[in-house]
Input
Amino acid sequence: MQAVSPRQAAHDPVQLRRAVTSSFLGSVIEYYDFLLYSTASAVVFADVFFSDLSPVAATLASFSTFATGYLARPLGGVVFGHFGDRIGRKRMLVLTMSVMGVASFLIGVLPTYDQAGSLAPVALVVLRIVQGVAVGGEWGGAVLISAEHASRRRGLWASFTNAGAPFGMAASTVALSGTATAVGEDAFLSWGWRIPFLFSLVLLAIGLFVRLRVAETPVFAEAEERVEAAPRRSFPLWDVIRNHPRALLLSIGVGLSAFVVQGTLTTYLISYAVQDGFERQTVLNGLAVSSTLAVAGIVGWSALSDRLGRRPVVIAGALLVAAYSFALFPLVDTGSTVLLVLSLVVGQSLLHPLMYGPLAALYTELFTTRSRYTGASLGYQMAGLGAGFAPLIFTEVQADAGDHATLIISSIIAAFCLVTVVCVAVLGETSGNDLATLSADDPTGPFLPAPAAPPAQQGRPRP
Output
């Protein structure tokens, strides 16, 4: 197969399709592995790796190991972002996918606590950290390889990376629940839970086949040519901290609520509903349905952000989720399976995508080419800590506050949503920003937010 040069890839619709397909499949695979752990931490790992603890303590310990993956994600964003900004997006994406696939496979062959004692949970934490580093580097590169290949409709094309996350969640949920159904409860807790993790190697082979056919982005290729006569002045991380500190801090605030809600709907609510009397399989089925439908929500709302702008779509989503958070737990507490599924579908498939989908394009539009991988990854992954710690914090609140716990949890979610509203309002509209700007000291001009466009034009990228 003949390689495609970056020059040939410029404005090539074939390469755009390959880039978007690669980003979506890569995100599905990465998040299948990463979120497979989150589902397993809610339904399996407390019994398998923390069997010496009480049920509440085991759940807290399981969610704590879950959170370590999110703590490692900013590190992955900085490390892979540095090299992605220096030597190219594509190479880092091949590496992150490989690291994730191997780490997930190794989780599938770990001994249990009964077999290896404390060594088992320690090894689990180490592999979870490796997963976090890999997914921290994956997202930024996957978004950039789509956004930087696109000459228009950036919100739509970049959103396929974010759409891969819920599809990966659905795949991981189906894999776990299908395995449990096939082998039975006892066999599932004994050895069946390993099968979805071992399957990661098959997904890795498929993902690498697709990803290796994608050319480097034309935006990065052009930047490399432009800097041949002008050496790089700083490390990408330093460029972000020195030239884009405001954008970095606001980007964390913009995405934080989306991740808090994600962690609530996909991890904490599973444990809460099971404790509330629902069958585990019923909850997992509802999660699989809502995760699959979320793909359409993310792509649809992101496409709308190309027309209306990122700001109004994200703000509308944050306000609606803030209000919905007070209805979420009462719907689950009814004990109705229909209302449980409805609560998941409305939350994860309709409302959450409003503020989550446009983030893919928004983060790429905040930073310049020399530091975009680093800046977008760091802001996104720092915000992602909300998903890692929300289940842990909410489990603590539930243990301490008793009957008033859900009201407190809903209030916390609403408060984070209001933070997002403020940060998006301060940040301004980003959809008109030019991705070809090299750096803050680019002789072609500084990287500044695009001026407000008339309503008919706002949200459309510059040609």
User: Anything to note?
Assistant: Residues 1-9, 442-463 have pLDDT under 50 and may be disordered. DSSP finds 21 helices and no strands in the chain. The CA atoms of residues 227 and 438 lie 9 Å apart.
